[in-house]
Amino acid sequence: MGKMLDYVEKWKLLDPQPLAITATSSLYTVIWNEQPAVLKLLTPVGMNDEKNGALALQCFNGNAAVRLLLFDEQAMLLEYADGADLSSLVLKGEDEKATGIAADVLNNLHRAYAGAAPQELTSLKTRFRSLFKKAKQEHKEGITSIYTKAANVTEKLLAAERDFAPLHGDMHHGNVLFSSKRGWLAIDPQGLYGERAYDAANLLRNPTGVGMDDFVADPDRLARTAELLAQALKLDIGRLLAFAFAHACLSACWSLEVGEATSFSLKVAKIAESLYNISKNLKSL
Q: What CA–CA distance (Å, rounded) separates 95 from 182?
């Protein structure tokens, strides 16, 4: 409470109301300059994990993303998006419409910044370190697994990386909110820099939530969504699916690190791999 009150005074905020608490932050709705905003107070974990998010928002500069109004190393003041997220459309049976909106948001994010790569943003090589670590352990043990295959695919993708841009890094349906003033906006970027296909790949294992696993991990749905994204974003669909395979295996590695189940991520990974037979066509990546 004390930290929140400090920022209320420092940034001249009014009417703070609790919004959400996560591992990385506590969020409050506030009034700033007579407009609603979100105060995001970072935990010690958040101060490390979310510092690139502020830089990404600066790169996007309000283009299909919430605006970063004020920030320091411990807090951010963000534009408030007052509507529902993209999952609401999927739940109403409008999955393809949601995919099209997500693609539009990504196109705008990726076009927003034309400067040299900000060195502080995380590279995809660093992003995949948990997968590379897992594969290295299994190589030492003489094991060939989905993780060693995914690490091999990832190395080939990154050796021929292309179409660079500042990336959101965690593009999923819950991170795209509707604003009655500005339309659909991305929130909570993680601040990566690399090939645009990676941002789209994360959408192929989303949305998550109760009752969504079977819907998302359906080969027909995944294939259809990949085609829509590839067309809208002008991506090579083989590379998109290869990144989807790699990212799903990376997600499984993150789950292993915290003792969570890997079955959903690995199911998505196997579907993505089988759709374009990635493991047998590495030269095409």
A: 22
